[in-house]
């Protein structure tokens, strides 16, 4: 018989495990998914939100009539909105400008006020989302900043609830726990409890985007929300969250964006689980882990949130195609054209005019994208880092007529960023993008710039 609760807050936690029988078919070790998307607010962050608010009340940091403020990719803000509004607080959520738009809509539906801010700038930049919410906290009387990244009540929620639930649900048989690492609270609290309960025999595996610096990547952007550690090249001090204890994680599985996103889509189609992209990362990692194990092992993977917050992204065929993550059989026109294109020329946005002219001097074509981050990243130039374009003709003319000197910053000569097409799109779609008179398009493969195609190349 279904439980009866006096409040939705009483329904946070107690989520079921589902065996991933289809995705795990043929594997000796069973994989069970902890369905955190069945929390009342749709994500694992409901647990941390309730824990942080109750701790703040207990410690006198949050008082009647107060305001809860937090920087969030969406899920923690939703949890705080539910808990906060239930307990009579004003809630302001600072949301990253690249988060799925559904998340801001959900926050507003729960009664939160939404403030958008960038995260793709140095952490010291006053425009950075973290700086925005810190400023709001200082300005609003009675405001409390939840600060999930450094709040000990975040991992403590999982020590008290998520870890014990998994241990009990598996009868102590769990041998491997797999979870993504964002603030680090979930993997630290849950993994730490499972290690203690098992006498240290449970292996904790972090599922990380391939370029995230948690698992050893270069920190360049990726397309899976809510997990990983981004490092802007202009950041002076790279601070990791205090909620994360690296010693709890035994190893990392670094998952490319395409594998994460396609696995999330497989979860919906094959297992009937509509989950978000970070669940795809976690399941992809769990599948890798399980392939190395035997029937005496049991893998539990945590699915952080619902796919309903990502219908415009990972679960949208058009979005997947536009960013170069999805290629349909037979639709290879852009890929074929890309194979015949020349190498891409990229320079830093803070390069000089002379640097750009030198880079373009012997390059085929005449247009180069300029990127905000380091031009030489091991994982290539993310499409989200491209901030403008410049032609060889513009540079040559500016240097010749004295409008610019070789040592001048390039920024003043930058034109708009070139339009983009996904590698799996058709030539007709690519030509449609160029209908506005732009000279070329950037071709994206897995969200990163793979090449440049001119109008002439697409006409053949």
Could you give a short description of this structure?
By secondary structure, this protein is of the alpha/beta class. Helix content is 32%, strand content 17%.
Query: H/E order of the elements?
Result: EEHEHEHEHEHEHEEHHEHHEHEEHEHEEH
Oligomeric form of this entry? Answer: single chain
Gyration radius over CA? 24 Å
Low-confidence stretches: none
- Average of the residue pLDDT scores: 90
Q: Structural class, from helix and strand content?
A: alpha/beta
Global geometry? globular
Q: What is the helix content?
A: 25-40%
β-strand number: 16
Q: Quote the distance from N terminus to C terminus.
A: 66 Å
How many individual helices? 14
Strand content: 15-25%
**Taking strands numbered 1, 2, ... along the chain, how are they ordered across the largest sheet?**
1-2-10-7-8-9
Account of the protein in words:
The protein is α/β, with parallel strands linked by helices and 460 residues long. It is built from 14 helices and 16 strands. The protein has helices spanning 45-58, 75-86, 101-109, 129-139, 153-169, 185-197, 257-271, 277-290, 317-322, 333-339, 353-361, 392-400, 427-433, 455-459; strands spanning 17-19, 31-35, 67-72, 90-96, 113-117, 143-145, 176-180, 203-209, 251-255, 299-303, 347-348, 367-371, 386-391, 420-422, 440-445, 448-454. The protein has a six-stranded mixed β-sheet. The chain has a four-stranded parallel β-sheet with strand order 5-4-3-6, with helices on both faces. Helix 1 crosses helix 2 (75-86) and helix 5 (153-169) packs across helix 6. The longest helix is centred in the middle third of the chain and has 17 residues, at 153-169. The protein is globular and about 75 Å long. 51% of the residues are buried. The model has no long low-confidence stretch (mean pLDDT 90).
